[in-house]
Specification:
- The protein is mostly helical and about 260 residues long.
- The protein contains eight helices and no strands.
- It folds into two domains: about 90 residues, no CATH class; about 130 residues, no CATH class.
- α1 crosses α3, α4 packs antiparallel against α5 and α5 crosses α7.
- Bound molecules: zinc ion.
- Zinc ion binds next to loops.
- The site of zinc ion has 8 residues, from loops.
Length: about 260
Amino acid sequence: MEIFIYMIIFIIGALFGSFCTLAVYRIPLGENIVYKHSFCPNCKAKLQFKDLIPIVSYIALRGKCSHCGEKIRIRYLLLEVLSGLTFVLCALSLRMNFLTVDIRTIIYFTLFILYFVSLFIIAGIDQEKMQIQKSVLIFGMVLSCIYMIYVCLENANVQSIYTYIIYLISIIVLLVVNIVIMKKKSYENYTIQILLLSMYMMIFSTSALFYITAIFALIGILIANLNKKQKPVPIGFYLCVSNIIVIIAYNFLCNWVIK
Ligand SMILES: [Zn+2]
């Protein structure tokens, strides 16, 4: 029974992964991510339902477009599998038992799943274009506010409320600075985008876990640059990947080891 439910979670995760690949491709182009029909980027043929099943379609088509035979990037498959695994690991790390699960755990799980999805999209776009899209950050801000309300309702202590207020003020200041710079230079400042991303991460992972995330990200950047192939470093990409790993590892530690 449990395994069956975890399989469903994996499939939902893979579906979200499929959505992420679409978002990574479309958001930088300013295209609609909800209404427009999916198409092959090479021959522009509309994809049919059988081409849209995550993982299964990729294997059935042997990684090629069914119309023009253009290779589909293996990255799409990887992202779908990784997304599915992340969802399952997140549920496992919270020790979700589906017979006794309570509403608090479900809300917490949902919020973090949405958080991870936003990090997937940020990482994907940053790795390709070296930028963090404002629309994804704004989604993040809305999600942050919901999360902060949830935390304050759960265990309202004055200190955490103060911390969140400071984060919120910092985010607003950064957003204003970003807008001012944009007007002056007519492009967006990558440093400010990274700072905004960091604030977003601090809200969801507390400052202590964020420091660990930053250290992991730095190690990742150092290793990736040992062979000096990568020219500009997509810092956001490394931060996102590290943050997802750190949060899930921390939840495993809290719910499995310490308990
Ligand atoms: Zn095609």
